[in-house]
Design a protein that fits this description.
Layout: H1 3-25, E1 35-36, E2 45-51, H2 72-82, E3 88-91, H3 129-132, H4 134-142, E4 146-149, H5 161-164, H6 173-191, E5 197-198, E6 206-207, E7 211-212, H7 213-220, E8 223-225, E9 229-230, H8 240-257, E10 266-270, H9 281-294, E11 298-300, H10 302-308, H11 321-329, H12 349-369, H13 387-395, H14 414-425, H15 438-446
Parallel strand pairs: 1-8, 2-3, 2-10, 2-11, 3-4, 5-8, 9-10
Antiparallel strand pairs: 6-7
Helix pairs in contact: 2-9, 6-7, 8-9, 11-15, 12-13
């Protein structure tokens, strides 16, 4: 590996370590928009996602037996079909509006542009994206692959000073949702396809005004699609052969150590050039799929993966699984933002409001933050994750204020949940414990 590759890899490890530490210290809240990274299952099934395509340019270098002008994305679809695998393509719309700009240094994060990203390459934007590749989009849909929203123009939602200090970004939640909606409408109108997942450019979540990408997902009815295993196809190495090996060797090593290591995981890949303007995915994808097939894995879409379990910590064998999944299907918010149900978590007043009014509550919270609705609760800011759900719960008279205070972190006791159910469902549950957990609430509301 080159010194640059080593530095990039070290920076990425440091970033993940910092993120893990921040996650440990940050409270988690129930959320109708869940970060889907992997799911709990004992089945040997996983998903593979491909960012930044479609790409009409040929692979670089071109594998033996492939026509010199054959599109990379078409080749990836051929490989997936050969192994009976289904991919999830996280596509862009068109990056040709991201000018004026200058190309960055090959091998750096800004290889395709300093001010913006340009896919599939600088000055060749018309060779990629859904706008310019309708036949490839139609083939994905026809062959049962999944398409997700990687934004229309692939512009950062907010600042990312460390890596992209000179990069332009969007400046408001409305700008973000407008961009996402533009690609959403393109797929609906031109291809009759409804998108259900989004992955933000470079995983930048913060949006000006105190919002984030989860708010944008809530407004469009999306889930947040992340990944749990890095396919490394974006990373430049000293040689092309090393870039290809970086795609499949970690998969083989993980499965040699534990054949069930990739059960329920989402693998990240790239449908386009890496930083060295290579496409190791063209040679590495088949090898990765061969290894997965050898260990008995099925590669399915992210949507199909969620049919095994929609949660990161509850599998089909868990006693609470059917109740939690049933409530989720009814539109309740049963999981936290990290996609875990965490059934032993003590039940609080704020969480109970969010459990029932989550999706509508997320949209109401945005209205509160934008000043479109009043919120006269003395002990909660409008930016609180549960403010919108609390607002709706107060309107429905399922909760009341105590001298203007809601006390969102106060525990919910048996009498509180009985009153909640009586107001909403016209009947009360039986045999409730005095101290309630999130799991108790799920079991109770599932029976209502």
């Amino acid at each position: 590996m080159s010194m640059l590759t080593t530095a990039i890899g070290a920076a990425k490890k440091a970033k993940h370590a910092l993120k893990d530490e921040i996650d440990r210290r940050t409270p988690v809240y129930l959320s109708p928009v869940r970060r889907i990274e992997q799911i709990r299952t004992t089945q040997r099934v996983c998903a593979m996602t491909f960012d930044d395509g479609p790409m009409l340019l040929p692979p670089s270098p071109c594998p033996d037996g492939i026509p010199a002008d054959y599109p990379l994305t078409a080749h990836l679809l051929d490989v997936l079909d050969a192994y009976g695998a289904k991919g999830t393509f996280d596509v862009v719309g068109d990056t040709s509006t991201n000018y004026p700009d200058q190309a960055g240094q090959v091998g750096s994060a800004s290889w395709g542009g300093i001010a913006y990203d340009h896919y599939p390459d600088f000055g060749r934007d018309n060779q990629g994206g859904a706008v310019h590749s309708p036949d490839l989009i139609d083939r994905m849909i026809r062959n049962g692959h999944q398409i997700t929203n990687h934004t229309y123009a692939h512009v950062l939602f907010g600042k990312k000073s460390v890596v992209y200090g000179r990069r332009h970004h969007l400046h408001a939640l409305e700008e973000v949702t407008t961009d996402l909606h533009r690609l959403d409408e393109l797929l609906r109108q031109k291809h009759g396809y409804a998108i259900g997942f989004m992955r933000p450019p470079h995983y930048v979540d913060r949006i000006s005004g105190g919002f984030d990408s989860y708010d944008a997902c809530a407004l469009l009815g999306y889930q947040y699609m992340a990944a749990s295993f890095d396919g490394a196809g974006w990373l430049p190495c000293k040689t092309y052969e090393q870039e290809v090996e970086a795609m499949w060797k970690p998969i083989e090593a993980a499965l040699q150590k534990d054949p069930d290591a990739l059960c329920g995981q989402i693998i990240f890949q790239k449908d386009g050039y890496n930083m060295a303007r290579h496409t190791p995915v063209a040679d590495g994808l088949g090898k990765a799929l061969e290894i997965l097939q050898r260990y008995g894995y099925r590669v399915v879409t992210v949507q199909e993966l969620l049919e095994y379990s929609p949660f990161a910590d509850l599998g089909a064998a868990d006693p609470l699984f059917l109740a939690a999944r049933g409530l989720l299907d009814r539109g309740y918010t049963v999981a936290f933002r990290n996609n875990k149900v965490l059934p032993q978590t003590p039940l609080t007043r704020g969480a109970l409001a969010m459990l029932r009014f989550g999706a509508d509550g997320a949209r109401r919270r945005i209205e509160l933050m934008q000043g479109k609705k009043a919120f006269a609760v003395r002990d909660m800011k409008v930016s609180h994750p549960y403010s919108g759900a609390v607002s709706l719960a107060l309107e429905r008279d399922v909760f009341s204020l105590d001298r203007g205070r809601f006390r969102p972190d106060a525990p919910v006791g048996r009498a509180d949940l009985e009153s909640f159910c009586r107001t909403l469902y016209g009947r009360t549950p039986d045999d409730l414990p005095e101290k309630l957990t999130h799991g108790d609430a799920i079991r109770t509301l599932a029976a209502m």
